[in-house]
Automatic annotation (TrEMBL):
Protein name: DUF1989 domain-containing protein
Source superkingdom: Bacteria
Residues covered by the DUF1989 domain: 18-181
InterPro entries to which the protein is assigned, alphabetical: DUF1989
Pfam short name (any one): DUF1989
Amino acid sequence: MTTVIEDTLDHGQPLSREIIAPGGRWSHRLETGQRLRIVDLEGQQAVDFLCYSAELPLDRLNVPNTVKLNRSLYVTKGCTIFSDKARKMFSVLEDTCGFHDTLAGCCSIEMDLHRYGVEKKTSCRTNFVNELAKWSLSPSEIVSNINFFMRVTFDAGEVEIAPAVSKAGDYVVLQAEMPVIAMLSNCPQDSNHSSGFRPTPICVEVLPPLGESGLTA
Ligand SMILES: [Zn+2]
């Protein structure tokens, strides 16, 4: 696992680096220009992602705006993530995977009971509820999210959660375009392909703006 991270250390010394266990959650405020790197350490691990303006949290990730303004149902390198007010929240600077979902939203205890007849204790939705509380934000602030490293196909209008194509060490780098609260759930789903039926850890780094070096450990 350490090797995978060190192999891709050409992004500058991170301001912070955390390993998020399967089913874990994370949030952090980023200032304009700071970068967020999410590494799928073992491959095929869905990472559910939300973001909010740090100065006006009611202006938040808007997936339909993102889809329309990028003219793409997938988020990948070169895309911009937009808010309700059509403001730029993040630019996708790098992407070694290429498939990131905008359709499927997050898993929930209720949906898993409905879909699989299984009563679970955790989900991305419960993770978001708990993480939002840290920022005094309520569950009503959960909106349709982006799923990094998750592949949802939509051939002929038929939507399916398909086996992910992300390999161990694949990553995305997002550059904050405004002060922003980034939030993610390392999806605990073990009943479909979103996490390869085997949720695994991820690494999350906050990197300084391009051209600036970060703090040394
Ligand atoms: Zn999930």
